[in-house]
Design brief:
Radius of gyration of chain B: 13 Å
Helix content of chain B: under 10%
Helix content of chain A: under 10%
Number of helices of chain A: 0
Structural class of chain B: mainly beta
Distance between the termini of chain A: 33 Å
Shape of chain A: globular
Number of helices of chain B: 0
Strand content of chain A: over 45%
Order of helices and strands of chain B: EEEEEEEEEEE
Strand content of chain B: over 45%
Largest sheet of chain A: 7 strands, mixed
Shape of chain B: globular
Oligomer: heterodimer
Radius of gyration of chain A: 13 Å
Structural class of chain A: mainly beta
Largest sheet of chain B: 6 strands, mixed
Number of strands of chain A: 11
Distance between the termini of chain B: 35 Å
Order of helices and strands of chain A: EEEEEEEEEEE
Chain lengths: 117, 111
Protein backbone atom coordinates (compact mmCIF):
# COMPACT_ATOMS: atom_id res chain seq x y z
CA UNK A 1 0.00 0.00 0.00
CA UNK A 2 0.91 3.63 -0.23
CA UNK A 3 1.30 4.13 3.50
CA UNK A 4 1.59 2.30 6.79
CA UNK A 5 -1.72 0.65 7.61
CA UNK A 6 -2.83 -0.40 11.08
CA UNK A 7 -5.84 -2.40 12.14
CA UNK A 8 -8.14 -2.17 13.88
CA UNK A 9 -8.44 1.60 14.16
CA UNK A 10 -10.22 1.26 17.47
CA UNK A 11 -10.43 -1.62 19.90
CA UNK A 12 -12.40 -1.81 23.12
CA UNK A 13 -11.64 -4.83 25.24
CA UNK A 14 -12.42 -6.09 28.69
CA UNK A 15 -9.73 -6.19 31.32
CA UNK A 16 -7.98 -9.54 31.30
CA UNK A 17 -8.59 -10.32 27.63
CA UNK A 18 -5.84 -10.65 25.03
CA UNK A 19 -5.62 -8.33 22.02
CA UNK A 20 -3.70 -8.36 18.76
CA UNK A 21 -2.82 -5.21 16.88
CA UNK A 22 -1.68 -5.40 13.29
CA UNK A 23 0.69 -3.25 11.25
CA UNK A 24 1.23 -3.40 7.49
CA UNK A 25 4.36 -1.39 6.69
CA UNK A 26 5.17 0.35 3.43
CA UNK A 27 6.31 -2.22 0.88
CA UNK A 28 10.08 -2.63 0.88
CA UNK A 29 10.60 -1.06 4.29
CA UNK A 30 12.81 -3.37 6.31
CA UNK A 31 12.70 -1.38 9.55
CA UNK A 32 9.52 -1.38 11.62
CA UNK A 33 8.82 0.27 14.97
CA UNK A 34 6.06 0.17 17.54
CA UNK A 35 5.39 3.16 19.80
CA UNK A 36 2.77 3.77 22.45
CA UNK A 37 1.09 7.14 23.01
CA UNK A 38 -0.72 7.62 26.29
CA UNK A 39 -2.87 10.65 26.93
CA UNK A 40 -0.76 13.67 27.80
CA UNK A 41 2.50 11.84 27.30
CA UNK A 42 5.01 11.60 24.51
CA UNK A 43 5.40 8.59 22.30
CA UNK A 44 7.13 5.72 24.09
CA UNK A 45 9.32 3.37 22.10
CA UNK A 46 8.25 -0.26 22.43
CA UNK A 47 10.15 -2.41 19.93
CA UNK A 48 12.19 -2.21 16.73
CA UNK A 49 12.35 -4.79 13.96
CA UNK A 50 15.02 -5.04 11.30
CA UNK A 51 13.67 -7.56 8.85
CA UNK A 52 12.12 -10.35 10.87
CA UNK A 53 14.35 -9.99 13.89
CA UNK A 54 13.86 -7.67 16.84
CA UNK A 55 17.26 -6.42 18.01
CA UNK A 56 15.67 -4.03 20.49
CA UNK A 57 12.72 -5.03 22.66
CA UNK A 58 13.78 -2.79 25.51
CA UNK A 59 10.64 -0.67 25.47
CA UNK A 60 8.15 -3.48 26.01
CA UNK A 61 6.65 -2.59 29.42
CA UNK A 62 6.10 -6.14 30.70
CA UNK A 63 6.10 -9.77 29.66
CA UNK A 64 2.42 -9.40 28.77
CA UNK A 65 3.59 -7.56 25.65
CA UNK A 66 5.08 -9.37 22.67
CA UNK A 67 5.50 -8.69 18.99
CA UNK A 68 6.44 -10.60 15.91
CA UNK A 69 7.07 -9.90 12.30
CA UNK A 70 6.81 -12.37 9.46
CA UNK A 71 8.03 -12.20 5.90
CA UNK A 72 9.63 -8.79 6.45
CA UNK A 73 6.15 -7.44 6.19
CA UNK A 74 3.25 -7.58 8.61
CA UNK A 75 3.87 -7.17 12.31
CA UNK A 76 1.56 -8.08 15.17
CA UNK A 77 1.73 -6.60 18.66
CA UNK A 78 0.04 -8.82 21.23
CA UNK A 79 -0.99 -7.74 24.70
CA UNK A 80 -2.04 -10.54 27.02
CA UNK A 81 -4.30 -10.15 30.04
CA UNK A 82 -4.91 -6.48 29.27
CA UNK A 83 -5.00 -3.95 32.10
CA UNK A 84 -6.60 -0.51 32.16
CA UNK A 85 -3.15 1.07 32.13
CA UNK A 86 -2.64 -0.45 28.67
CA UNK A 87 -5.22 1.97 27.25
CA UNK A 88 -3.40 4.09 24.70
CA UNK A 89 -2.88 4.69 21.01
CA UNK A 90 -0.44 2.16 19.57
CA UNK A 91 1.47 3.53 16.61
CA UNK A 92 3.51 1.64 14.05
CA UNK A 93 6.11 3.21 11.77
CA UNK A 94 8.33 1.88 9.02
CA UNK A 95 11.38 3.00 7.08
CA UNK A 96 13.76 1.71 4.42
CA UNK A 97 16.72 1.61 6.79
CA UNK A 98 17.45 1.69 10.50
CA UNK A 99 18.35 5.37 10.17
CA UNK A 100 14.91 6.17 8.83
CA UNK A 101 13.86 8.34 11.77
CA UNK A 102 17.16 10.22 11.90
CA UNK A 103 16.91 10.95 8.19
CA UNK A 104 13.27 11.93 8.34
CA UNK A 105 12.32 8.96 6.17
CA UNK A 106 10.14 7.03 8.59
CA UNK A 107 6.36 7.11 8.30
CA UNK A 108 3.69 6.44 10.90
CA UNK A 109 0.43 4.60 10.52
CA UNK A 110 -2.80 6.08 11.85
CA UNK A 111 -2.58 4.09 15.05
CA UNK A 112 -4.87 1.74 16.96
CA UNK A 113 -6.74 3.30 19.86
CA UNK A 114 -7.00 0.64 22.55
CA UNK A 115 -9.44 1.08 25.41
CA UNK A 116 -9.46 -1.44 28.23
CA UNK A 117 -12.64 -1.33 30.30
CA UNK B 1 10.58 11.76 33.12
CA UNK B 2 10.51 13.14 29.58
CA UNK B 3 13.86 13.51 27.87
CA UNK B 4 12.40 16.39 25.88
CA UNK B 5 10.22 18.95 27.63
CA UNK B 6 7.73 20.88 25.54
CA UNK B 7 6.02 24.11 26.53
CA UNK B 8 3.37 25.20 26.71
CA UNK B 9 1.27 22.07 26.98
CA UNK B 10 -1.79 23.83 25.54
CA UNK B 11 -2.10 26.94 23.39
CA UNK B 12 -5.30 28.55 22.17
CA UNK B 13 -5.10 31.61 19.96
CA UNK B 14 -7.16 33.64 17.53
CA UNK B 15 -6.68 33.30 13.79
CA UNK B 16 -4.00 35.70 12.59
CA UNK B 17 -1.98 35.68 15.80
CA UNK B 18 1.54 34.31 16.11
CA UNK B 19 2.64 31.48 18.37
CA UNK B 20 5.83 29.80 19.53
CA UNK B 21 6.28 26.30 20.91
CA UNK B 22 9.43 25.33 22.77
CA UNK B 23 11.27 22.04 23.09
CA UNK B 24 14.07 21.73 25.65
CA UNK B 25 16.41 19.02 26.82
CA UNK B 26 19.57 18.56 28.84
CA UNK B 27 20.76 16.05 26.23
CA UNK B 28 22.47 16.73 22.94
CA UNK B 29 20.84 15.38 19.79
CA UNK B 30 22.28 14.86 16.33
CA UNK B 31 18.96 15.87 14.83
CA UNK B 32 15.66 17.16 16.01
CA UNK B 33 12.32 16.80 14.32
CA UNK B 34 8.91 18.38 14.56
CA UNK B 35 5.72 16.46 13.85
CA UNK B 36 2.08 17.46 13.65
CA UNK B 37 -0.62 15.01 14.64
CA UNK B 38 -4.34 15.36 14.03
CA UNK B 39 -7.00 13.34 15.88
CA UNK B 40 -7.19 9.75 14.66
CA UNK B 41 -4.02 10.07 12.63
CA UNK B 42 -0.37 9.27 13.14
CA UNK B 43 2.27 12.01 13.48
CA UNK B 44 3.37 13.59 10.20
CA UNK B 45 6.89 14.93 9.87
CA UNK B 46 7.14 18.70 9.33
CA UNK B 47 10.89 19.25 9.43
CA UNK B 48 14.25 17.82 10.46
CA UNK B 49 17.01 20.12 11.74
CA UNK B 50 20.54 18.79 12.07
CA UNK B 51 22.94 21.73 12.53
CA UNK B 52 23.29 23.77 15.71
CA UNK B 53 21.88 27.24 15.11
CA UNK B 54 20.01 26.11 12.03
CA UNK B 55 16.84 27.94 11.05
CA UNK B 56 14.40 26.41 8.59
CA UNK B 57 11.33 28.07 7.15
CA UNK B 58 8.35 26.25 5.78
CA UNK B 59 5.81 28.84 4.56
CA UNK B 60 4.47 30.39 7.81
CA UNK B 61 6.40 27.97 10.04
CA UNK B 62 9.92 28.74 11.29
CA UNK B 63 11.97 26.09 13.07
CA UNK B 64 15.15 26.78 15.00
CA UNK B 65 17.71 24.37 16.44
CA UNK B 66 19.71 25.68 19.38
CA UNK B 67 23.45 26.24 19.03
CA UNK B 68 24.16 23.47 21.54
CA UNK B 69 21.70 21.11 19.81
CA UNK B 70 19.70 20.65 23.01
CA UNK B 71 16.66 22.73 22.26
CA UNK B 72 14.41 23.88 19.47
CA UNK B 73 11.47 26.15 18.78
CA UNK B 74 8.62 26.25 16.32
CA UNK B 75 7.13 29.62 15.42
CA UNK B 76 3.93 30.01 13.42
CA UNK B 77 3.15 33.38 11.88
CA UNK B 78 -0.44 34.45 11.25
CA UNK B 79 -1.90 31.17 12.46
CA UNK B 80 -4.87 29.67 10.66
CA UNK B 81 -7.50 27.18 11.85
CA UNK B 82 -5.79 24.56 9.67
CA UNK B 83 -2.75 24.81 11.95
CA UNK B 84 -4.76 23.26 14.77
CA UNK B 85 -3.20 20.03 16.01
CA UNK B 86 -0.77 18.36 18.37
CA UNK B 87 2.81 19.43 17.73
CA UNK B 88 5.50 16.98 18.81
CA UNK B 89 9.24 17.45 18.94
CA UNK B 90 11.51 14.42 18.78
CA UNK B 91 15.25 13.98 19.04
CA UNK B 92 17.58 11.41 17.52
CA UNK B 93 21.09 10.54 18.62
CA UNK B 94 23.79 9.78 16.11
CA UNK B 95 23.26 6.40 14.40
CA UNK B 96 20.30 5.63 16.64
CA UNK B 97 17.24 4.08 15.08
CA UNK B 98 14.70 5.45 17.54
CA UNK B 99 13.47 8.87 18.57
CA UNK B 100 12.80 10.39 21.97
CA UNK B 101 9.56 12.36 21.91
CA UNK B 102 8.28 15.29 23.90
CA UNK B 103 4.76 15.12 25.36
CA UNK B 104 3.46 17.54 22.74
CA UNK B 105 1.77 20.92 22.55
CA UNK B 106 -1.92 21.05 21.65
CA UNK B 107 -2.52 24.11 19.49
CA UNK B 108 -6.02 25.39 18.82
CA UNK B 109 -6.52 28.25 16.38
CA UNK B 110 -9.97 29.83 16.64
CA UNK B 111 -11.58 31.33 13.53
Amino acid sequence: GAGVSQSPSNKVTEKGKDVELRCDPISGHTALYWYRQRLGQGLEFLIYFQGNSAPDKSGLPSDRFSAERTGESVSTLTIQRTQQEDSAVYLCASSRSQLGFSLGEAFFGQGTRLTVV
Amino acid sequence: TQLLEQSPQFLSIQEGENLTVYCNSSSVFSSLQWYRQEPGEGPVLLVTVVTGGEVKKLKRLTFQFGDARKDSSLHITAAQPGDTGLYLCAGARSNDYKLSFGAGTTVTVRA
